[in-house]
């Protein structure tokens, strides 16, 4: 089984004493950023990395193979019929040999020490089910739009409140725990990583690597630009976890999920107003008005909630 072996990092024990890390990189196209994403994986300082590329029904599988051969020749490629990102990641995880798994999109960038740092923390913290790291947002040209702002979570309630950004692009998880919670929900195509994180948080602690070790690329064609669909998906996921918490009589967790729902309503307004400004500047006034009307419909109380929060903080 091909395993990429970079040069041994100074101070790191022999490779036989450290866990294999499987990186599952799912794609359904040949993104203009795909080769850079793969090169960042091939350049990891960690000596035991297995790269699995899952081609989820891309229109040109041969181009996927060619890009992988040039950018990460040690990687395995799994070609499959299109079934969505959650199913693709689950398929990659099922084929993984590593004790630890990273999920990677075709436009992400991993800093050279990312896997070594996160794997080191999970190795020295056996009670942890997952590790997340600092995550920057970059643009199509690689310029930093938002510096990493992740913070330490105190417990599962902080994770349920979504006090900090724990997403697929900055997450490393133990394979056993990933499979124990059922992996990604195949029915979800947006915010599927939130559902996974919430399920994992009920199994154990998360450890945090504060360094900016991963870059999420924001561009015109990625999913987070779909603010309406993302808002609805987050609401669906959090409501499902809220129902489970209420059925279990876990009032603290239920309260945390309610906080998350309020945050999602505020996000609905942020996304709608941001998009409305773009449309208005382009002269598309009807589209701008549609965004505001949508926000009023889906989150009518969010503006008052935002004002109340600012007053309570003394802003």
Largest sheet: 9 strands, mixed
Query: Order of SSEs, N→C?
Result: EHEHEHEEHEEHEHHEHHHH
Structural class: alpha/beta
Which stretches of 5+ consecutive residues score pLDDT under 50?
Answer: 1-12
Structural Rg: 20 Å
Based on DSSP secondary structure assignment, what is the total number of beta strands? 9
Distance between the termini: 56 Å
CATH architecture tag of the largest domain: Alpha-Beta Complex
Instruction: Give the CA-based shape.
Output: globular
- Estimate the helix proportion, in percent: 40-55%
- Return the CATH topology of the largest domain: Spore Coat Polysaccharide Biosynthesis Protein SpsA, Chain A
CATH level 1 class label of the largest domain: Alpha Beta
**Tally of separate helices:** 11
CATH H level of the largest domain: which superfamily? Spore Coat Polysaccharide Biosynthesis Protein SpsA, Chain A
Averaged pLDDT: 91
Strand content: 15-25%
Short description:
The chain has eleven helices and nine strands.
Task: Walk me through this protein's architecture.
This protein has 315 residues and is an alpha/beta fold. The chain folds into two domains: 209 residues, Spore Coat Polysaccharide Biosynthesis Protein SpsA, Chain A (Alpha-Beta Complex); 88 residues. Helix content is 45%, strand content 19%. Strands 1, 2, 3, 4, 5, 6, 7, 8 and 9 form a nine-stranded mixed sheet that branches. Helix 2 links the parallel strand 2 and strand 3. The longest helix has 31 residues. It is globular. The N and C termini lie far apart (56 Å). The N terminus is likely disordered.
